[in-house]
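Lecture 7, part B: from sequences to assemblies.

Below are the input chains for today's worked example.
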Amino acid sequence: MTLPLALTVCGTSGSLSTPPGPTAGQTPEPAELVVLAASSLTDAFGELAETLPKQASFAGVRILMGFGASTQLRVQLEQGAPADVFESADAAQMELAVRAGLIKGTPNVFARNRLTVIVPRENRAGIASLADLARPGVKVVTTARDVPIGGYTLQTLSKLAADPQYGSGFDARVLANVVSEEANVRQIVAKVQLGEADAGFVYASDITARISADVRTLEIPERYQAPAEHVIGVTRSVRAPVLAQRFIDHVLAPAGQALLKRHGFLTLA
Amino acid sequence: MQTGIGWRALGAVAATLVVVVLAVPLAALLWRALEGGALGPALGSQLVAQALQLSLLTSAASLTFALLCGTPLAYGLARWTFPGRGLVDALVDVPVVLPPAVAGIALLMAFGRRGVLGAPLAEVGISLAFTPWAVVLAQCFVAAPFYVRAARTGFAGVDRDLEGAARVDGASPLAVFRHVTVPLALPSLLTGAVLCWARALGEFGATIMFAGSFRGRTQTMPLAIYAALESDLGATLALSTILVVVSVTMLAVARYVTRRSASEWRFW
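Predicted structure of the full complex, as structure tokens:
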């Protein structure tokens, strides 16, 4: 499912130089920006929350981040959670938010991601290739199918099953090995890192410096990849519209893209 | 008198606030569950049926463990002196005040595949993680202390002279335990059992961290409520309604039991 998302790569250049604060004839904006973002953005956006307030355009602004499964965040938004910016790890959850009238304007795709398989460092299940994931007894963890990573995993599995090398029924055999549907992608990472699970599909960007020593990675070739997109938009209930747009502009601008790239995301350029 | 009335009014407002905080969420839950007409179909859904079945089975297993192993422990703590008794006594109280998320991590460190006991178990091919046994273990950790505490108090309150009289009349120690001690302590034992079962049924934090969440295997009712919130609000409301009804029923049973005098309970 894809959205006709406008890929506006640069924002209104004028707004970047305007300091936050009251504009003539308008109610003053609160010096607080609330961002709800997919758990895969925990590190990248976490860094933004710390570093952006040091820049002139966000001086004195408190950036609050809420991370979770995009599905969970969308439900929170529906239930009236106060947020200025919503980021989803897939177009489907963003589209549901748009249809529910929760998003102002058109959301932007700002990054893409690759799926990869991680196994614990000791790899007791002896997983050497993607084909091993279908071996009976291998403990695979994923999420519910509505959570973006769970949906992408299903897409990748059906692409693998369409390849005679893996054979039809490959997806069903891997899914029969699923022992737990975790709440979000970072919980999958944790279960593999702890060695509880034998394997899990995660985003390439989830293998952070803190994780990389504890897990091994199996690359998924390009032809089996699901089109994982990260989408961001201003909420209808926004209380700091100028700051919200400025945040999105920053994420789309070269500095923001460089930060995302450093965190393992595929950037737009 | 003027100030007296003022304080009383303030007290009434404060008390009403507490009642509102307690009553409104429950009433809102039941109202939302009933108004949409989604309750009926949701009650028959596979998600709800599987979660209900798993919750009943695992909580029954946990309660059985608490009764079989917790009764001797409670009796020992109430009656015997042994080295480390104070420590064991305190240990039984810890899970009651411990946040369930901490219980989940502790269980992972002990019984996880890299855990202190989990690693040797994994060597011989026993892996608890992601199985219903992990759910039962999590429930036992957090819920069994509720039974042991109540039973300990119950055994400690039994009049030793009555037991002594039975012994003088020739009853064996086991007969005294069955026919004198247990009947006299029964209100405490039953209250403890009800609390233990209720806590096991409601267990969430330790279960989701230690056992994971999979339909029909480890996804108990509280976990199913959490999972379904993102996709199926009807199922969430149905599951929550069932748990409210079950909880209130158990509370009523516990209250009824504690009000009956010990002499009215003779099962043997």
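Note for the exam: Residues 1-37 of chain B form one domain. Keep this in mind when comparing with the next example.
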